[in-house]
Design goal:
By secondary structure, the chain is α/β, with parallel strands linked by helices. The protein is built from seven helices and nine strands, in the order βαβββαβααββααβαβ. It has a seven-stranded parallel beta sheet with strand order 3-2-1-4-5-6-9, sandwiched between helices. Strand 1, helix 1 and strand 2 form a beta-alpha-beta unit. It is globular, with a radius of gyration of 17 Å.
Length: 215
Amino acid sequence: MKILITGTSSGIGKAIAIKFISEGHNVIGMDVKESTINNKLYTHIKEDICCKNLPDISDVDILVNNAGVQNTQNDIDINLKGTINITEKYGIQPNIKAVVFIASASASTGAEFPEYAASKGGVVTYMKNVALRIAKYKATSNSISAGGVITSLNKHIIDDPKLWRDVLDETLLNKWATAEEIANFVYFVSVDNKSMTGQDLLIDNGEALKSNFIW
């Protein structure tokens, strides 16, 4: 199948691309940065997801909206408006089989930075809108709301022993997910899954569930 993934230069997006490549799919990555993925099944397009003149890519089977930023002045423009821009161009068409959105645990908890939380909450709502619109193609639309994920973006947390311990203590399972684990979830909901649509999967090691019962 032809897979289009945004934000493939590093982190979760790169892990998703590698997962699909390992399963024999043709992957097109789109990112404002260059990619280090070197594989005959991979094609890289250096482009901003907010671009109004996106390149023509026909017959995309699976679209994975991963590209995003955090705590910038452009969180809503990139995370939400850019994601809508990409999906309207490549995801709403008869060949589509699945659209997956990488949202955030912040979409439901409201935690973290204000515009970031708002942008990801918007992504989850838009995901449901897409589910309604691509159902006529027998296609699914779902989102993955990850909590903490071990990537280079979070190196400043991981490399600080006290901060890292405090962060892990906020989860029930006392750990964060790996980028490869999130990639496996994305593969499942887009390839293996045929019946779940319009749903947001919270992958946060129990952080949102953790509470102290105090009388």
